[in-house]
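FORM 7B - TANDEM STRUCTURE REPORT

SECTION 1: FIRST PROTEIN
SEQUENCE AND TOKENS:
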Amino acid sequence: MAAQSRMHDDYTIGWVCALSEERTAATAMLDERHPDLLRRPNDANTYTLGSIGGHNVVIACLPEGAIGTTSAATVAKDMVHVFPAIRVGLMVGIGGGVPPTVRLGDVVVSVPDAQYPGVVQWDMGKAEQGGKFRRTGALNKPPALLLTAVTKLKTDHKLEGSKIAQYLEEAQARYPRSTAKFLRSNLLQDVLFKASYQHVHQQDRDAAEDEEGEGSEEEESDDEAKDACKHCDKAQIVKRKPRDMRVHCGLIVSGNQVIKDARVRDRLSKDLGKVLCIEMEAAGLMDNFPCIVIRGICDYADSHKNTAWQEHAAAIAAAFAKELLGYVVVDEVKAEKPVRDILLDISRTVTSIQEETTRNTHLLHKKQDMELLDWLSTDHYGAQQSDTLKRWHPKTGLWFLRSPEYQDWLQSEGGILYCPGIPGAGKTIMASAAIHDIDRAFPTDANIGLAYVYFIFSRQREQTAEHVLASLLTQFLRGQDSLPEDTRDLFERHRKKGTRLTHGELLTALSRAVSRYERAFVALDALDECTIESQCRTKILSDILDIQAKSNMNILATSRMHDDIAGLLTRQNTTTLSIIAQDEDMVSVLRSRIKTYDQKLYDDDFCNLLVSKIVRVAEGMRLLSSAEMLHALAIHPNTTAIDTNYCPSINMIMSICAGLVIVDEESHTVRLVHYTTQEYFDKTRATWFTDAQERITESCVTYLSYEIFDGYCETDEDFEKRLVTYPFYSYASHEWSHHAGAASGRQVIVDFLKNERRVQASSQALLSKKWWSGDSGYSQRIPKGTTGLHLASRFGLTDATPGLCTIDDVDKSDSYGQTPLSWAAECGHAEVVKLLLETKKVEVNSKDNDGRTPLSWAAKYGHAQVVKLLLETKQVEVDSKDNNGQTPLSWAAECGHAEVVKLLLETKEVEVNSKDNDGRTPLSWAAEYGHAQVVKLLLKAKEVEVNSKDNDGQTPLSWAAECGHAEVVKLLLETKEVEVNSKDDNGWTALSRAAKNGHAEVVKMLLKTKQVEIDAKDTVHGRTPLSFAAENGHVEVVKLLLETEPAEIDAKDTGYSQTPLSLAAEKGHPKVVKALLEAQRADSRCKNTGFGQTPLSWAARNGHVRVVKLLLGTKQVDVNSKDMVFGQTPLSWAARNGNIDVLRVLLETEEVDSNSQDTVYGRTPLSWAARNGHANVVELLIETKQVDVNSKDMVFGQTPLSWAARKGYAEVVKVLLRAKQVRIDSKDYDGHTPLSLATKNGYRMVCVVLQGFDKADSSMKRPNPWEDFGSGSHGERTR
């Protein structure tokens, strides 16, 4: 008799299988088969329907060949949509067992324990340093209904045994032909090999065995069918006593990769606890389909994996599932909430959580990013800008800002505006005005970057090339929503090691930061005041000009008339605009400032003394704050405490020194009024201030010797209190030795160095460095136990050293393990090193806590004279390795000290290919940092390995190419020994790295070899050199790759199948997009398979209006194309993210669908804009008169007005209410109106706006939404 036909709503149990064998077993367990039902549209599943006991069951199987968590999730998702009454689910099939607990033919059921929910996705997580893998997220537990049934079943198994064998026999009786292998036969042998023993395939047999073997190929095939491990060593089998089948309850691990390695299997079990089974589908279901997982064990997840046990394992799993359903009460199942409703609730909750999490994550990341940027550089020159701007008379300088030269520079891209002028002409004021004007011209445009530097003569020592690059980088990064991942990782790596970014790393990071903006501006004021020591000024300008050549950056530079500066800045795109004091400007300022006021007069002798003291204090010093200055002026020789009563007021100083010094209001620093003042004092110093340095030294040391400074502060709080209370202490600790010079033997200095407690307190102030605002414990991360001899060695005080050697332990180590010799060697004080060696009491090979010797320190910092002295002792270990595995040669090579490298190589005692803990050789380090002279020296060593790979697989050529060191690349290529296509562990070649970082000259060199693989793909994302160049905005490299040897223009990566055009559009690089489109081969309509977004969608999503215009100009893009994740169009993305300029451009196209709903939430562009608070976007969309202002989304049933009210966006509510057709009382799926949503979430202003709207139903009695808020002062939220 035919089974009664049922409807989709009649099925309450969902049964999911992965393999056809599992589906066969499941079908065989049905008590009754039901006829198929009509197939629903867009449903790719096929179903088997039937019943077990009183339960109506629907069985679905993954498509043929599909495996993994994603496929399983897709099947389950479609199943619950087609069969809306499904309450619980079963995931039934085969899996790999984890010995020794589990054996072949056993059953494993997913049951939670104290730590895990029954199933864990082993490959879901994050790779961390040291090869560790941290699993993230958690999966749902099986439904309580099924767990209760398992508990009852386990009890009955103990008392009566299992019914699995009975169900298998019944199935065989019903289907004798198709279930022959369900029962366990003698042919199934349970063989477990030792974990360390790998499977031997037929081709692995040696030739002798092949020759001695007998029998035909056919016979061998038969044997192989019976025994898949016929060639394996039987001595490697683990001996175990036979036992019957068992059912285990516990942990199952699931993932997207097949595990055929016993070592991986055992490591997973060790990491996660007692793992019973490994499979590939369950993790895809647990979060989307409330179910329990049942697995029959068919192998041991090792290299001996085979199919012999699969059908039996599938059958016993299905039989157990049937037995389990016998313990589940039908009415209890019907009482459960349908899975579809559960998923809808989850979707709503998850959406809400995601929104909150996104906000919190953004805030957390922003906080962490700010800490990292504070660590990188705290000097943003904002205080100087504010202070200078305050001194700018607003009616002056208009001639400059309105000049054609400035306006053309401002409007065009990639230009240089060079503004020379005589001293006092107002160059700094004009630079400040220009910075203000740029900032005002683009007040809210996140695609415009601005950074600036004020060079100041008194800060020459600190304004190094690295300082300037770090400041510019920090300013550009602060303008972005979040730090790029690669930049954050780079910062974290250095911060944890306590090291700073190298010049090359800063340059690369700055170049990348600039490239992320559509336009970037850099202002450099007073370049003439930048030091020329060590070619600093030339280096800074060269670096910035190199970055400009790769980007669209605009440069504004001011300086006095200097031929070398003008020469460096003169380019084809340079405009010169001289700054000359204008008569009308001077008249305007004078008229506004001419006024009379009373001045308090002071004694002439006192005034002369104060002026003299200020000038002496100022010579050679960094800028002092007003508080530091006042304490400095109050110091008297031979005193033991500061007399604050002797501190003059800052007003007194300003009055007496009128015209000489000023106080910056923002930075609170005291400085000479102008560079010309400094020049004047420089000329007259020898006559006026012959003893200035000695007086400053005496003041500093006297201050440090005050009795209050009695040893280390034990906490950060105490330390910071000391610095605040005694503001001159930090300067005195850092700078006294610089002023000491030949006076280091003076008695006041010697007395200070003999006082151990004062020395320790001073060294804490000297060495403590707070790297970021939240850097806790920084004041304690210093070497303790320092002596006066340590300080004398650090500062190179040769006059004080001999006397201290008779008092202090000459070879005493501080808490960091450094001796005075180590300090002197590190700081390069050869005379002190010589004095210490002459005592014959020092250990020349002493190692500090980092394993570094004095020779290692001297080599690192390039102190050739010290290296010579140490080598001459004939006692040093020339090739000693520190804790990082680096030798002195490695350090010298890394830091580019060619003279030291030469000295070390000449000893013939160094291993030129010595590898450190990272696998880096000296050549590798020299290549990374571009030290061409060092590379030359190392290449002359015959034994040098030019292709040596580090732990990440990078060669010296790879490092040099990545960092753009063309000269080093050339040297390496000339050896004719380098492997130009060598791939590192990420699959990146030298060309990939050079292209990624925009090093066009290096790319050109590599292409000229005619040996490079131009389309080589990495193993991380499958990206080619062209993809990397396009992603990072390097248009010159893109053109080279397209022209020199045409690269595959539409090569898709393996991450999200993005082409170079897609990547360039996503990141917002219009020049690259234009170059790719002009090549006439790039596909502007291509979708990536990960998100399914077209280049237009990416550009619209991220607000890149110029890219959008370029793509629309091709007339080939689908303006309404939807992505595959959210189903949003470009217009929807632009509205969602508030990109109004993009929105305007898209709305100008006739084809755009203004009411397109996404496929996940069912929201229109208007709904997204309202939800995210973009009032200007909402207004623009309504003005088109083409949008449905009352459209409801699919998940919450909320209109744009509901969303704006729910989120508290009062301005958006006002805009929507102005649309005549808006429904103010529209209800969502939970019955909430816009007013009730605003009330519920505490948004008073929104409630006021809604209640005051004249279209509201005045007859409707509304409760006062603020009754629970009392007077409104408590619990009130405003937006």
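SECTION 2: SECOND PROTEIN
SEQUENCE AND TOKENS:
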Amino acid sequence: MFHCHLKHPAPSAEERDYVELRAAGWPAAVQKDGLELVTAPLLNTAPSRPSESHSHHLNEFLNNLLTLLLPCRSRGRSVEEEEEDEVPLEKPVADMPAMASSHRNFLPPTLTSQDESRHPSPSPFHLSIPGGTQRRIITDTSSGYVAPKFEGKEKQMEAVIGTIEQSGFIPAGFIDDEVEWFYTRLGIDDMYFKSESVETIANHILALYAGKVAAFSRADKKLEIRLDREAVDHAVYIDTSTPGVSVLNGPQYEQRIDEKYLNDSHPGKAYRVETFRSNESLGADSAAQLRCYFVYQCQFEDPSPSENETDFTKIADKTFLEKTSENTKKLYADIVQAVVERTGPVIEMFEVQGTREKRLIIGYRQRSAKGLFSAMSDLYHYYGVTSARKYVEQFSNGVTVMSLYLRPISVNAYTQKHPPIEASIHQIMKEVSLLYCIPQNSFQKHFIRGDLSLQETIYAHCVSIFITHFLNRLGAEYTSLLGLLDTNNNAHTEVLTKIKRRLRQETFTAEYITEIIAGYPQLVRALYLQFANAHYVQTRGENDDFIPTLSYQRLRQDPVLKPDDLVNHIRTTVANDHQATVMESFQLFNNHVLKTNFYTPTKVALSFRFNPAFLPPLEYPQPLYGMFLVIGSEFRGFHLRFRDIARGGIRIVKSRNHEAYSINVRSMFDENYNLANTQQRKNKDIPEGGSKGVVLLDYNSQDKATQAFQKYIDSVLDLLLPPTSPGIKDPIVDLHGKPEILFMGPDENTANLVDWATEHARIRGAPWWKSFFTGKSPRLGGIPHDEYGMTSLSVREFVLGIYRKLKIDPSQVRKMQTGGPDGDLGSNEILLSNEKYVAIVDGSGVLVDPNGLDQQELIRLAKNRVMISEFDTSKLSKQGYRVLVDESKIKLPNGEYVPNGTIFRNTFHLKDIGVDTFTPCGGRPEAIEMGNVGKLIDEDGKSRIPYIVEGANLFISQDAKIRLEKAGAILFKDASANKGGVTSSSLEVLASLSFDDASFIENMCIKEDGTTPDFYRQYVKEVQNIIKNNARLEFEAIWAEHERTGRPRSLISDDLSYAITNLDEELQKTTLWNDVALRRTVLGAALPNLLVKKLGLDTIVGRVPEGYLKAIFGSYLASRFVYKCGPSSSPLAFYSFMTTLTKNINENGTINSLANGA
């Protein structure tokens, strides 16, 4: 019980309210003027007895409470800057600093100082910080919106009355009352009446009256009024609404507004929304009121400014400028400015002086938070809060600002679920960021009904995605079958592959997994507590003004079950084994998450760093070093790497239709793993291991690649960078326990986003921002692969190597290529080639000419980087043709009938058209696999295509490659052929690490006037030569090993990769690095000559991290040894190799012959 000893004989009404709050279970920790303030969690201890004091009024009590709870401006702003605000806000209370320092003494003893080194972020994500010690108070209690007075309102009312009289639907005696009620009692402002016609207003009143009449026919006499009217440029919705209640089976007007108007608002066509609640209830026995929504298409002063423009006279809607007060404009201007400067939502809260109303303002980029408007209602309803008014304003620079006028549903009815708004507003603010990440999750109904909290539903949503990808569906039976069949038998392998694919696709679908989880909210709650107990930061530094959240309080009150108890709880709750398998997978998720941004105050998507040890070795034989999963409102994405220091591209996968999306979801992780594994093998010549990132756009978000990429990158950075801004980027629980750096590069659909990622990493304070992404534009020191043909150079060396070994004249070779002149690989392959092209397949269709495609026309397309759809068909021979994907029912010159252009394009590479060389430079992974490779083998068991060089990653599955080689094809796989791009990227990074900032800008960055530094030009040429040399070394090694052993070249490629990477790792563990002469000589040979001449070896060694130099040392020695002596060479061979090497160093001081593979 709550005990309060006061001098006055009876407590005041305000004190009685507080007694009710404590009796409901709300905690108390701070004693202030004789009253305990709600600032600390309930620790299952008896409440302390306050000292005797005079009674105080509620306003003073709330003021003291707000002193400790309400947010402040960003710590980056000074008090002087606060005082300069033009918005009529009160200055910080004078005694605030003293209170801020003293209130920590009241925190539970478990909250001790852990970190005193955090500083404000140079780019905070929002202005207010929950738990801060400064208050932002609006002294103007009006809404801040004042519609210009409509002088013709009275005359219009008379006209409306006349129109309704003529209709005859409302009895004459009621018409005046109904019109007067509509005009004066609903709170509709004059802008509506000025904008709408007399007929439209009369129809709205008739519709509302009809709802009243309909209530008489109901048994419960319940009045439900619903009106929706939609025009081309505006809409009106009016609904019966009980404050604080979300209705699942109602008209869902807010979801409709989201879907029809807000989700896809953009500067070219944006909509603003005004919504408010009537002041009166609909009846004496009803709590329901009318909720009105008005949607208007925006009319901007400047419809197409820069996205960084912040001049309100240019970017604001004309109606907004006309209706809002100057103070409101200033307030919105601050929010818009912050959105322009930062990534993610800007969240701000204001008190309204003299009231308990809170104004929550959220700013964000348009189209970045689908469904947020309606989801916000569910959020504040969950905490017993309702809104009096809501506004959504759009700006032509691409910013959306949502303003919510929040108030408690009831003044006195406090419960643990519905705390006073002074406490709950901070939890709402924290959860806005979580809601922004995923506004509509798979378990939203549980949240609306109150069965699960927002955190629990979004946690369940994330785990359901994890389960979709990682639930082991093959089972013991598949393992047994694998042991019985011969994996070297192509027929057996084909059967196993089909069974594996079928089991993965059909055993546990995403819908089935969601259905199971939805049936057990009580298990979700228990499993979430296990997750939260591990990752919610429960102690803060004593210099941090941490205020325990409702989440923290709950975590301290509810028991967290031990793992074994959780398993027993699951198995005694579920109905069958399938349900147990799904629910127990939650623990797999919980046990392997090493760190997450789930509890970071501001975020744009949810990221999880996993220990990948749970992956079954049978399916993923090469163990991963690191694994990230990122989930946003438009996408899901992985990042996988095989070594701590690793490099690989980030690709965005789009889906042409729903079926393609379903296939992409099922294959996403395997594709990512295989791509990273391929990268690991092709990175054999460079210090970085292999990695890859794959971002899959949701089916309804195919046009949001940029937003998805930015959220993906920012959320990964959350887990790589230390926290620097309390209340914005707080510490996270890091079970990995050591710093991590990821090196990334461009891939499919991300080439134009690399500059943003580089500059964003710099803005977020990443010390390694220059090397974070390769492939950036030359102005940032990047070396574009496509412009200089870096990847194509290595592919071309393998093609030329075949011709050289077999003494073939390239001009007589008939060639087919997938990946057209619009792509990096495809365009450069065309520009470098002199074979006779007879077929090219790209995203637009198929181009064929048995007599040879016009070379000059292909070069024109390649230089312009356009698809074959722009090929001049007048330059085709009579036997030539072009079939585009959107064409159908076509008859080819040879008489063949093509019913569907897309199907023809997707399968054309399997046709026998009489080609000698095939270079896949684009296309989906495993376009050739065991199920269709037979089409490339003739009746005599011979490959229809003699020479294949795989430029595109994973275009041919490994087992299909081996089958083609057994059928006589000379085939070089992707990991060997297309490694030129990664070599260029690695040397780009080396330059960024070697130069200081000033020298880097001088020597590696293209100037604004387009001037290219001489060093840059020469360095690019040396990089190209290194790429070609490395490709020749590997080609010769594979050719020689095949001649010696007869082993398939695809397997030899893997053998080389494994031998080099394994030897590299072993060398880095030896003492060879300590041999200074050897170290300097190897580095001198491994590093680009131009860089060494420019800076000197000592300077490079002094600037480049030692771990990176060791990786260069090891990879160079290992690759040169394996290329020279073969992948299965003995330790004795390495001893001989090193002996010769040391002798050359002692005699000549160089190892130049080693660099050339001699």
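SECTION 3: OBSERVATIONS ON SECOND PROTEIN
The chain has 44 helices and 27 strands.
The two ends are 88 Å apart (CA to CA).

SECTION 4: SIGNATURE
Preparer initials: ____
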